Amino acid sequence: MSPRPHLGSVDIVKHRSRVANLPVRMAAGAFILNSGLTKLKAEKETAERLHGFATGTYPFLENLPPEQFAKLLAVAEVGLGGALLMPVVVGDGLAGLGLTAFAGGLLGLYAKTPGMRQEGSVRPTKDGTAIAKDSWLAGMGLALMASSLTSRRLSRLERKVRNGKGKKERARAKEARAAA
Q: For the residues of 87-114, what is the DSSP string, one character each?
């Protein structure tokens, strides 16, 4: 009989998520999901403000109508937030990749929008602090991806150890049969 896996073990959630990552996923997921749900109800003025801010950094978005941009952003946030909140369905690696990409887009706004950073520095101005804090989301995403990679490697190592023990036991049994 195999030993019962401990809570937080890769075996418990079939390589999807580690219990230790749940607080990170829940915090980021709830925040992003709420933001997306709020944007789904965005009025025309809010959509125009969001669109205007984004097109300053990402000019390819200029061809997209503001209302459509706000809806697409909202759907993306709802999807990402939901993915983060469903750790058994969406693994840490994929959720972390999505969160890192999303945070990268936000940090691009911070880096390229005038007035967000102090002159000649990466330190935020008062206006830039709201976006600079999204660096935490990037850190969370990178941590989820690193955890996923580490979990996979540990899982492979555990399998190798188990298979190695099985081979040794079979070899001993074969030797014992041969000696008998």
A: TTTS-HHHHHHHHHHHHHHHHHHHHHST
CB count in 10 Å sphere of residue 23? 10
Rounded distance between C-alpha atoms, residue 138 and residue 42, angstroms: 25
> In the chain, where do the E strands start and end?
none
β-strand partners of 124: 117
pLDDT, position 167: 66
Q: Can you tell me the distance from the alpha carbon of 63 to that of 65, in angstroms, rounded to the nearest whole number? A: 6
Round the average pLDDT of the chain to a whole number and report it: 86
Classify burial at 65, counting beta carbons within 10 Å of its beta carbon; exposed 0-12, middle 13-18, buried 19 or more.
exposed
- Residue 9's pLDDT band, with cuts at 50, 70 and 90, is very low
Q: Are 35 and 75 in contact (CB under 8 A)?
A: no
Q: What is the pLDDT of residues 118-172, one digit of tens each?
A: 999 999 999 999 899 889 999 999 999 998 888 766 667 667 767 766 666 667 7
Q: How far is CA 121 from CA 101, 104, 124, 128, in A?
A: 23, 19, 8, 12
Q: Which pLDDT score is estimated for 117?
A: 94
